[in-house]
Design brief:
CATH superfamily: Tgt2/MlaC
Largest sheet: 5 strands, antiparallel
CATH class: Alpha Beta
Order of helices and strands: HHHHHHEEEEEH
Number of strands: 5
Strand order of the largest sheet: 1-2-3-4-5
Shape: globular
Low-confidence stretches: 1-5, 14-27
Strand content: 15-25%
Number of helices: 7
Number of domains: 1
Helix content: 55-70%
Length: 214
């Protein structure tokens, strides 16, 4: 289970991308510059929004859904998380896996975003060559009285702009972390069993969110 600090840091990975849709096309801006500009802009919004500060789940999820998701390659991330099992899945299974994995991450990071408490950021410069199509953008989350937490974004340049395909928090890869978990579940219950397991977790998270509103 992730520590609270790492859950918050992973939430920042979404905050850092949450306003991309309102900026210039991603391919026109260097990835590190884009992450920095948008992080500062969105954090400012979070600080001023009393509903988000109060933990309004719907508002936070809407933020993630409308501003973040277009800039993550969830199909690619799901494929990487499944590893050698991905080619074995049929088209419908891949569709369901991607949908459930996407839902799982949205709700996980929505919880982390609601936990933001004025942490500071150290944005590391990126030496980007004109021919680069795969880069790592580095950010450090500075916390009072605690060691900084590193967030590294694995990003690929596509026809639709720069897309995130992995997030590494404190040296732990999101994709690799889920690959181990998903691999174990596939071995025990097959691909359909994995789909059912993720779907059940998503229903549980949704029910918990609903209960918290009451």
């Amino acid at each position: 289970m992730l520590s609270a600090a790492r859950r918050i840091a992973r939430g920042f990975s979404f905050i850092a991308l949450a306003g991309w849709a309102i900026n210039a096309p991603a391919q026109e801006v260097a990835p590190d510059v884009l992450v920095k500009d948008v992080t500062l802009e969105v954090v400012d919004i979070v600080r001023k929004d009393r509903d988000i500060q109060a933990g309004d789940r719907k508002k936070i999820i809407d933020l993630v859904e409308t501003k973040v998701l277009p800039h993550f390659d969830f199909n690619g991330m799901t494929g990487l998380a499944l590893g050698p099992h991905w080619p074995k899945a049929n088209a419908e299974q891949k569709k369901q896996l991607t949908y459930e994995f996407r839902t799982l991450l949205v709700r996980t990071y929505a919880s982390a975003i609601s936990a933001y408490r004025d942490q500071k950021f150290d944005f590391r410069p990126l030496r980007l060559k004109p021919t680069d199509t795969d880069v790592t953008v580095q950010v450090r989350v500075m916390q009072s009285g605690a060691q900084p937490i590193s967030i590294d974004y694995g990003m690929e340049k596509t026809a639709g702009g720069w897309k995130v395909y992995d997030v590494i928090v404190g040296g732990v890869s999101l994709v690799a972390n889920y690959r181990t978990e998903f691999g174990n579940q596939v071995r025990d219950a097959g691909i359909d069993g994995l789909i059912k397991s993720i779907a059940a977790k998503n229903r549980s998270n949704a029910a918990l969110s609903s209960a918290e509103k009451k």
